[in-house]
Amino acid sequence: MNEALLQLSQVSAGYGPKAIVSDFSLTIRAGEILTLVGPNGCGKSTLLKTMAGHLPPLSGQLMLQGKPLTSYAPKALAKTLSFLPQGQPTPDIEVEQLVSHGRFPYLGFQRHMTPLDRQKTEEAMAITGVLPLRHRLLSSLSGGEKQKAYLAMVVAQDTPLLLLDEPTTYLDIGHQFELLSLVQHLNSAGKTVVMVLHDLSHALAYSHRIALLQQGRLLCCQTPASLFASGAMQQVFGVTGHQVCREGGYDYYFTP
């Protein structure tokens, strides 16, 4: 069994005194893709921000590589996990400059890029397909192109843990599959991924485990096949699930 990379123990999180996530315990295993699913407002994004250290827990503890998350200095944390939130700004800079920001945790005081930093930036743009856009201003990009540029920045950060909040936002269906295949590629290269997805079919197809949330609490965390067979996902979302056998696995779709 893979070792624990990030452990949440009885975590409650929210904004001000109000807890949106309550008594949440979960272990993220090194080398897996774990997807958070649940109805709108159930606390998925709040939980991811807490995992990233952007939102302090109201109670409970998070342990990253065996150390309290709060004990990490900002640079050390940024070398261990990277976070792609929703709703990114559009600074007036070129794509390559944005992607190079992923290397900031590794730079010295004067922020001079080394040959390794430039190599990591180049590789990240190539992997995510934005290399042809390197000299384009972010403001000139479509929503999907901008999303991929921000993903390239996260890839350039080169951390063992990636936290992705709705990474398929703004992407058409073809580019959604392309991005999720990229997530699988990064995972096969050794990255651990925790992501939030709204599309249940995608969650079932691209995850090793799925954590199902409802009203700020963890209902269960299971493999896609076990979760689908349990009927818990269908019950929470009020849908009917359909499983179609194909060579090498299953496809899933849902109807009201």
Describe the structure.
With 256 residues, this protein is α/β, with parallel strands linked by helices. The protein has two domains: 4-80 and 159-255, Rossmann fold, CATH 3.40.50.300; 90-158, no CATH class. The chain contains nine helices and twelve strands. The chain has helices spanning 44-51, 74-78, 95-100, 115-128, 143-157, 173-188, 200-206, 224-230, 232-237; strands at 4-15, 18-29, 33-37, 59-64, 67-68, 81-84, 161-165, 192-196, 209-214, 217-222, 240-246, 249-255. The strands form three sheets. It has a six-stranded mixed β-sheet with strand order 6-7-8-3-9-10, sandwiched between helices. α4 packs across α5. The longest helix has 16 residues, at 173-188. The mean pLDDT is 94.
